[in-house]
Amino acid sequence: METSDLIHSIKSIEFESPTDRIIQQLKQLIVSGQLKPGDRLPAERVLAEKLGVGRSYVREAIRKLEFFGLLKTSPQSGTYVSGYSIKMIEGVLSDIINFNKDDFSALIEARYYMEINAARLAAMRRTDEDLALIRSAVEDYDNKINNKEDAIQEDMFIHLRIANATKNPVFESMLLMLLPDIIRNIVEKKICGDNRGIKAMTGHREILQAIADQDADAAAGAMAAHLDDIFTTTNNHLLP
């Protein structure tokens, strides 16, 4: 075999994220019968301490499992295992873990179209309380960037606040599915330059103003401009 052919045959090593490992462990507990339909999971804090990971990873795993209907959470009584059969659970869990991992461009495209429409709906449906929460998230982001601190979490909260203002819970659920993997890829691949945070500040402010004005077209346009930059940077980075 030629060296060039051999190189193309070698695949990069895949590393599981803490979220995937949590999902795998929960799968094993369900399949083995240690967790049965209707059983309540330990609290996030307890799970995080036992697994030796941050609570954000536990929360992300639970959110993903909730989205696919494998877990149900009640604010009053906690998180429970759904009544799906073991065979269905095994298939769906595999889909969750492999969800768009190898297609970063698909993640970016899905986010692009979803968030443009989320911004449009947010402008149409937002309340004064929603606007205050979005503005606060934008200010938190700006403060971190101005202090030259990491603002990844603050960036994510801005977009989640906008999704929440749509009054359609599917937008927020889908973003909770997509954003962690998108952010992880951007960080690991070092796609965005050092000045990305400063440029994003302007984009966030334009989106915020359009939502404040309840101008749906302007909100959609501002979100498109904001994400176009990320999309172009990502495509250029991934070109051979």
Description:
- This protein has 240 residues and is mainly α.
- The protein contains eleven helices and two strands, in the order H-H-H-H-E-E-H-H-H-H-H-H-H.
- Helix 3 (44-51) crosses helix 4.
- The relative contact order is 0.11.
- Residues 3-14 have low confidence and may be disordered.
Summarize the helix and strand pattern as letters: HHHHEEHHHHHHH
The CATH first-level class of the largest domain comes to Mainly Alpha
Shape: globular
- Specify Rg, calculated over alpha carbons: 20 Å
**Tally of DSSP helical segments:** 11
CATH superfamily of the largest domain: GntR ligand-binding domain-like
For the termini, the CA-CA separation is 23 Å
| Sheet with the most strands, sense and barrel status | 2 strands, antiparallel
CATH architecture descriptor name of the largest domain: Up-down Bundle
Instruction: List low-pLDDT spans.
Output: 3-14
Number of strands: 2
SSE class? mainly alpha
CATH fold-level topology of the largest domain:
Four Helix Bundle (Hemerythrin (Met), subunit A)
Strand-residue proportion: under 5%
Q: Helix proportion of residues, in percent?
A: over 70%
Q: What is the typical, i.e. mean, pLDDT?
A: 79
Give the neighbour order of strands across the main sheet.
Answer: 1-2
